[in-house]
Amino acid sequence: MHAGEFCLVKLYDLSQPLNQETPFWPYYPPFEVKFIKRKAEHGVNAQYIMTANHIGTHLDAPLHFVTGGKSIDQIPLTQLYGPGVIVDVSEVGDLGLYTPELIESKVEVKDGDILILYTGFSKYAWYQKPKPEGTADEERYIHLHPGGGRDMVEWLLKKKIKLWGVDAVSTDHPMNLPIGRFLPRVCDKVRSLSEKKFGGREKVDSMFPPEDYQLTHNALFPYDCIHIENLGGQIDQLLNRRVTIGCFPWLFKGGEAAFARVVAFVDE
């Protein structure tokens, strides 16, 4: 750039909205909000919230799965901002497994990139337009999202990926979560659909062994490879593109996770 010139950067919000309507993780408490002051009586509007961390667009810190691991405030900003890619893996569909081969067929992923995966499940999120005109489907969003397997874990470490994220409720496949293993009313349905997709009970058991429970959390967090869950917003406008990505959680001292605003910066 020459003196006097400047580069225009367009910002894309990759976050989901958050309020009391946001679905919460199974077995976790919901987001609660109420007014504790109102303008008419107190001269000011003020709210009080109570919530678990793992709801809406949020960043998981290593502490979430590693005793003594880094908390949110200990994650350097340099890990949360930098070059990366947004990759369309939506073709894997309900209960699918995205793979390194699929990702690398769409874009070049460089060592140390921030990696954002578009599973397509953000279109089923609670804030989308309701049926019959819209696509919002809370049960599908929670129960049937895609996930990553052992090959993803090994590849993420090989590529030195320190931050990745998905527009789904978890980076793990439902069969590696309570959703497919023991969540009442739900797990039998999820297992049945998984067996139909992958070729029977024995195949599913071999693909999702007991030791792979919450795989992408347990296997990656010890190496400070962390992730963002419940991405959305304008993510579908930047598919298979190289961009600059920033994840901005609040400076939560001792936090094992934190709500985050995630932004893509694109030179125009």
Helix-strand blueprint:
Blueprint lengths: L8 E5 L18 E6 L1 H4 L3 E5 L7 E3 L16 H4 E8 L8 E2 L1 H7 L7 E5 L19 H6 L3 E2 L1 H9 L4 E4 L11 H4 L5 H12 L2 H7 L7 H4 L7 E4 L11 E9 L7 E11 L1
Parallel strand pairs: 5-7, 6-8, 7-9, 9-10
Antiparallel strand pairs: 1-12, 2-3, 4-10, 4-12, 5-11, 11-12
Give a quick rundown of the structure.
With 268 residues, the chain is α/β, with parallel strands linked by helices. The chain has one domain: Putative cyclase (Glucose Oxidase, domain 1), CATH 3.50.30. It has nine helices and twelve strands.
What does this entry look like structurally?
The chain is α/β, with parallel strands linked by helices and about 270 residues long. It has a single domain, classed as Putative cyclase (Glucose Oxidase, domain 1), CATH 3.50.30. It contains nine helices and twelve strands. The strands form three sheets. Strands 4-10-9-7-5-11-12 form a seven-stranded mixed β-barrel. A two-stranded antiparallel sheet has the order 2-3.
